[in-house]
Amino acid sequence: MDTPRTERGLKRRQALLDAATDIFSTEGYTGTTLDMIIARAGGSRRSLYQYFGDKDGLFSAVMQHHVGTMMAELEATGVEHLPASEGLHRLSSTFVKLMLSPLYLELYRQLIGLAPAFPTLAEQIYEAGPTLVLEKLHDYLQWLVDRGELPSHRLTRHTARQFLGMVKTDFQICALLAPHKLPDAEAIDAHVRNCITVLLDNR
Asked: Could you tell me which residue ranges the HTH tetR-type domain spans (predicted)?
Protein backbone atom coordinates (compact mmCIF):
# COMPACT_ATOMS: atom_id res chain seq x y z
CA MET A 1 0.00 0.00 0.00
CA ASP A 2 1.23 3.51 -0.83
CA THR A 3 1.48 5.61 2.31
CA PRO A 4 2.29 9.34 2.53
CA ARG A 5 5.74 8.41 3.87
CA THR A 6 6.93 6.25 0.97
CA GLU A 7 8.48 7.80 -2.14
CA ARG A 8 5.60 6.56 -4.24
CA GLY A 9 3.14 7.80 -1.65
CA LEU A 10 4.73 11.26 -1.60
CA LYS A 11 4.52 11.45 -5.39
CA ARG A 12 0.88 10.36 -5.32
CA ARG A 13 0.10 12.94 -2.64
CA GLN A 14 1.81 15.69 -4.65
CA ALA A 15 -0.08 14.68 -7.79
CA LEU A 16 -3.35 15.03 -5.91
CA LEU A 17 -2.26 18.42 -4.52
CA ASP A 18 -1.30 19.66 -7.99
CA ALA A 19 -4.56 18.50 -9.52
CA ALA A 20 -6.57 19.97 -6.66
CA THR A 21 -4.76 23.30 -7.00
CA ASP A 22 -5.56 23.51 -10.71
CA ILE A 23 -9.21 22.57 -10.27
CA PHE A 24 -9.90 24.62 -7.14
CA SER A 25 -8.35 27.66 -8.85
CA THR A 26 -10.51 27.32 -11.96
CA GLU A 27 -13.75 25.79 -10.65
CA GLY A 28 -13.81 27.19 -7.13
CA TYR A 29 -14.32 25.20 -3.96
CA THR A 30 -18.02 24.50 -4.44
CA GLY A 31 -17.59 23.64 -8.13
CA THR A 32 -14.83 21.12 -7.45
CA THR A 33 -15.57 17.47 -6.80
CA LEU A 34 -13.26 14.72 -5.63
CA ASP A 35 -14.03 12.77 -8.80
CA MET A 36 -12.68 15.67 -10.88
CA ILE A 37 -9.45 15.68 -8.90
CA ILE A 38 -9.02 11.91 -9.06
CA ALA A 39 -9.70 11.93 -12.80
CA ARG A 40 -6.91 14.49 -13.25
CA ALA A 41 -4.37 12.99 -10.84
CA GLY A 42 -5.18 9.31 -11.04
CA GLY A 43 -5.45 7.10 -8.00
CA SER A 44 -8.55 6.41 -5.97
CA ARG A 45 -10.84 7.91 -3.37
CA ARG A 46 -9.21 5.60 -0.87
CA SER A 47 -5.82 7.22 -1.51
CA LEU A 48 -7.26 10.71 -1.33
CA TYR A 49 -9.03 9.99 1.96
CA GLN A 50 -5.87 8.38 3.31
CA TYR A 51 -3.74 11.44 2.54
CA PHE A 52 -6.18 14.29 3.19
CA GLY A 53 -9.25 12.97 4.98
CA ASP A 54 -11.90 14.64 2.81
CA LYS A 55 -12.48 17.57 0.46
CA ASP A 56 -12.09 20.10 3.29
CA GLY A 57 -8.79 18.52 4.29
CA LEU A 58 -7.58 18.62 0.70
CA PHE A 59 -8.53 22.29 0.34
CA SER A 60 -6.69 23.08 3.56
CA ALA A 61 -3.63 21.17 2.35
CA VAL A 62 -3.63 23.09 -0.95
CA MET A 63 -3.75 26.44 0.85
CA GLN A 64 -1.05 25.50 3.36
CA HIS A 65 1.19 24.05 0.64
CA HIS A 66 1.13 27.20 -1.46
CA VAL A 67 1.61 29.55 1.47
CA GLY A 68 4.61 27.44 2.44
CA THR A 69 5.94 27.61 -1.12
CA MET A 70 5.58 31.39 -1.19
CA MET A 71 7.30 31.79 2.16
CA ALA A 72 10.14 29.56 0.96
CA GLU A 73 10.61 31.86 -2.03
CA LEU A 74 10.80 34.87 0.27
CA GLU A 75 13.32 33.07 2.47
CA ALA A 76 15.39 32.31 -0.63
CA THR A 77 15.85 36.03 -1.35
CA GLY A 78 18.89 35.92 0.94
CA VAL A 79 18.58 39.53 2.07
CA GLU A 80 20.10 38.97 5.50
CA HIS A 81 23.50 40.39 4.56
CA LEU A 82 22.63 42.78 1.73
CA PRO A 83 22.92 46.58 1.97
CA ALA A 84 19.71 48.40 2.84
CA SER A 85 18.50 49.54 -0.57
CA GLU A 86 19.40 46.28 -2.33
CA GLY A 87 17.96 44.03 0.36
CA LEU A 88 14.73 45.99 0.69
CA HIS A 89 14.28 46.04 -3.08
CA ARG A 90 14.82 42.31 -3.43
CA LEU A 91 12.50 41.47 -0.55
CA SER A 92 9.79 43.94 -1.58
CA SER A 93 9.89 43.01 -5.26
CA THR A 94 9.59 39.31 -4.45
CA PHE A 95 6.68 40.02 -2.13
CA VAL A 96 4.82 42.04 -4.77
CA LYS A 97 5.51 39.43 -7.47
CA LEU A 98 4.08 36.67 -5.27
CA MET A 99 1.13 38.79 -4.16
CA LEU A 100 0.15 39.51 -7.77
CA SER A 101 0.73 36.03 -9.20
CA PRO A 102 -2.47 34.66 -10.79
CA LEU A 103 -2.51 31.53 -8.64
CA TYR A 104 -2.05 33.45 -5.40
CA LEU A 105 -4.76 35.95 -6.34
CA GLU A 106 -7.25 33.20 -7.12
CA LEU A 107 -6.51 31.23 -3.96
CA TYR A 108 -6.68 34.45 -1.93
CA ARG A 109 -10.03 35.31 -3.49
CA GLN A 110 -11.40 31.89 -2.59
CA LEU A 111 -10.04 31.90 0.95
CA ILE A 112 -11.60 35.30 1.67
CA GLY A 113 -14.96 34.01 0.49
CA LEU A 114 -14.65 30.76 2.44
CA ALA A 115 -13.10 32.17 5.63
CA PRO A 116 -16.39 32.04 7.58
CA ALA A 117 -16.63 28.31 6.79
CA PHE A 118 -12.93 27.70 7.47
CA PRO A 119 -12.08 30.07 10.35
CA THR A 120 -9.27 27.92 11.73
CA LEU A 121 -7.65 27.52 8.32
CA ALA A 122 -7.98 31.26 7.63
CA GLU A 123 -6.19 32.07 10.88
CA GLN A 124 -3.49 29.46 10.20
CA ILE A 125 -2.86 30.95 6.75
CA TYR A 126 -2.67 34.44 8.25
CA GLU A 127 -0.11 33.30 10.81
CA ALA A 128 1.92 31.28 8.28
CA GLY A 129 1.86 34.00 5.61
CA PRO A 130 1.36 37.70 6.43
CA THR A 131 2.54 37.38 10.03
CA LEU A 132 5.79 35.67 9.03
CA VAL A 133 6.40 38.19 6.23
CA LEU A 134 6.15 41.02 8.76
CA GLU A 135 8.47 39.20 11.15
CA LYS A 136 11.05 38.62 8.42
CA LEU A 137 10.91 42.26 7.36
CA HIS A 138 11.18 43.46 10.97
CA ASP A 139 14.22 41.23 11.54
CA TYR A 140 15.89 42.65 8.42
CA LEU A 141 15.16 46.22 9.50
CA GLN A 142 16.63 45.43 12.92
CA TRP A 143 19.75 44.12 11.19
CA LEU A 144 19.98 47.41 9.26
CA VAL A 145 19.72 49.32 12.54
CA ASP A 146 22.49 47.20 14.03
CA ARG A 147 24.67 47.98 11.00
CA GLY A 148 23.95 51.69 11.25
CA GLU A 149 22.09 51.80 7.91
CA LEU A 150 18.79 52.71 9.55
CA PRO A 151 18.51 55.03 12.57
CA SER A 152 17.18 53.22 15.61
CA HIS A 153 14.39 55.76 16.11
CA ARG A 154 13.01 54.78 12.68
CA LEU A 155 12.33 51.22 13.80
CA THR A 156 9.24 50.66 15.93
CA ARG A 157 6.95 47.67 16.20
CA HIS A 158 4.85 49.32 13.48
CA THR A 159 7.57 50.08 10.93
CA ALA A 160 7.48 46.77 9.05
CA ARG A 161 3.68 46.88 8.77
CA GLN A 162 3.71 50.50 7.60
CA PHE A 163 6.42 49.88 5.01
CA LEU A 164 4.75 46.74 3.68
CA GLY A 165 1.43 48.55 3.47
CA MET A 166 3.10 51.34 1.51
CA VAL A 167 4.68 48.83 -0.89
CA LYS A 168 1.47 46.87 -1.29
CA THR A 169 -0.69 49.99 -1.78
CA ASP A 170 -3.84 49.09 -3.78
CA PHE A 171 -2.10 46.68 -6.17
CA GLN A 172 -3.77 43.57 -4.79
CA ILE A 173 -7.32 44.92 -4.76
CA CYS A 174 -6.75 46.39 -8.23
CA ALA A 175 -5.53 43.03 -9.54
CA LEU A 176 -8.61 41.33 -8.08
CA LEU A 177 -11.27 43.84 -9.15
CA ALA A 178 -9.88 45.79 -12.11
CA PRO A 179 -6.80 43.97 -13.44
CA HIS A 180 -6.75 46.05 -16.64
CA LYS A 181 -5.94 49.08 -14.48
CA LEU A 182 -2.97 47.47 -12.74
CA PRO A 183 0.27 49.39 -13.46
CA ASP A 184 2.86 47.63 -15.58
CA ALA A 185 5.96 45.97 -14.13
CA GLU A 186 8.14 49.03 -14.69
CA ALA A 187 5.72 51.32 -12.85
CA ILE A 188 5.37 48.84 -9.99
CA ASP A 189 9.14 48.62 -9.65
CA ALA A 190 9.41 52.42 -9.61
CA HIS A 191 6.80 52.50 -6.85
CA VAL A 192 8.74 49.94 -4.80
CA ARG A 193 11.94 51.96 -5.17
CA ASN A 194 10.14 55.15 -4.11
CA CYS A 195 8.87 53.40 -0.98
CA ILE A 196 12.42 52.35 -0.13
CA THR A 197 13.62 55.92 -0.63
CA VAL A 198 10.93 57.21 1.74
CA LEU A 199 11.95 54.71 4.41
CA LEU A 200 15.70 55.24 4.13
CA ASP A 201 15.82 58.97 3.43
CA ASN A 202 13.25 60.07 6.00
CA ARG A 203 15.82 60.27 8.77
From this structure: 10-70
Query: Strand, helix or coil at 33?
Result: coil
Q: Nearest-CA neighbor of 55 among 101, 19, 1, 106?
A: 19
CB 70 within 8 A of CB 186: no
Please write the tens of the pLDDT for every residue from 96-126.
Answer: 999 999 999 999 999 999 999 999 999 999 9
Domains present along the chain, CATH in parentheses: 1-53 (1.10.10.60), 60-201 (1.10.357)
Q: What is the spatial distance between Cα 193 and Cα 152, in angstroms, rounded to a whole number?
A: 21
Average pLDDT, stretch 43-66?
92
DSSP state of 6: S
CB 23 within 8 Å of CB 34: no
